[in-house]
Write a structure and sequence with these properties.
This protein is an alpha/beta fold. It has 13 helices and nine strands. The chain folds into two domains: about 160 residues, 3-Layer(aba) Sandwich (Rossmann fold); about 120 residues, Orthogonal Bundle (N-(1-d-carboxylethyl)-l-norvaline Dehydrogenase, domain 2), CATH 1.10.1040.
């Protein structure tokens, strides 16, 4: 199934490369056209000048953009080139309601739509080891599986449209709590004068370990936070979680606490750093700690 890829950010570019290695990638499109041109030259595929042109030359389209309004704009751009039996696979993190809206819009055209948000960071995108959470019609999921298998190792169908985004929202709440706990623990360890490299190696094999501890505690130890998952993006995702919970009459303390701390980071100019930058605030809890 010849596939076009839309959205060549930190994760999207790697995902497109993996489709290319599998012989599935027809071409790419990106809002900043220079990124599409550069990657197309690298992969020797086509850099489409418009979304409708990409849709008209593909059987499937994979999308990886930042926000709900971006997804809506991409779907509108694809619309003139779409044809019945095509599949649109959205790997962005957006609201479940937005996913259902896009499903209904495309179903009216005879086009299948799957919300397939991913988890695993830039590392997972590069290694094609992402966890993929799918929502939509099960026959469409079955048809899309050969594409999804080139992007991730754990691919799970959760149910009707919007279910993939609900699963991803669950993941983002977990990430909020875990990154806070890891940062707080690392600030404590630093204040205690422990050798952080040995601590990370040891605790990474213990009961309190997590993906974030193993992969982001070294950022904290070095006090450098290169963007893997930006503060601004997780802030956006947690606002989606807050809205979804509010619709069910719930208040989520972990989400609210993390949003408050992200607001401080963004205000101080750290919004484009990795979310492990929350260590800046946890370190400041100890005398002599810095933000």
């Amino acid at each position: 199934m010849q596939t076009g890829f839309v959205g060549l950010g930190a994760m999207g570019a790697h995902m497109a490369r993996n489709l290319h290695r599998a012989g599935l990638l027809t071409g790419v499109w990106n809002r900043t056209s220079s990124k599409a041109t550069e990657l197309a030259q690298e992969l020797r595929c086509h850099a489409f000048t418009s979304l409708s042109e990409l849709a008209g030359n593909c059987e499937a389209v994979v999308i990886c953009v930042s926000a709900d309004e971006d997804l809506r704009a991409v779907i509108a751009g694809l619309d003139p080139g779409l044809s019945p039996n095509m599949i649109v696979i959205d790997c962005s993190t957006v609201g479940a309601g937005t996913a259902r809206d896009m499903h209904d819009k495309l179903a009216a055209l005879g086009v299948g739509f799957l919300d397939c948000p991913v988890s695993g960071g830039v590392e997972g995108a590069r290694a094609a080891s992402l966890a993929i959470m799918a929502g939509g019609e099960e026959p469409v999921f079955a048809r899309a599986l050969p594409i999804l298998e080139r992007l991730g190792k754990t691919i799970t169908y959760f149910g009707a449209s919007g279910a993939g985004q609900a699963a991803k929202a669950t993941n983002q709440i977990m990430c909020a709590g875990i990154i806070q706990a890891v940062a707080e623990a690392m600030a404590f360890a630093h204040a205690e004068g422990l050798p952080l490299d040995r601590l990370i190696d040891t605790l990474g094999k213990g009961a309190g370990s997590s993906w974030y501890f193993v992969n982001r505690a070294p950022f904290m130890a070095n006090q450098r936070f290169p963007a893997g998952f930006r503060v601004r993006l997780h802030d956006k995702d947690l606002r989606i979680c807050r809205e979804m919970a509010a619709q069910r009459g719930a208040h989520l303390p972990v989400v609210e606490s993390t949003l408050q701390q992200y607001a401080q980071l963004i205000e101080r100019g750290f919004g484009d750093e990795d979310i492990s930058a929350i260590y800046r605030l946890k370190s400041a809890l100890f005398p002599g700690g810095n933000v």
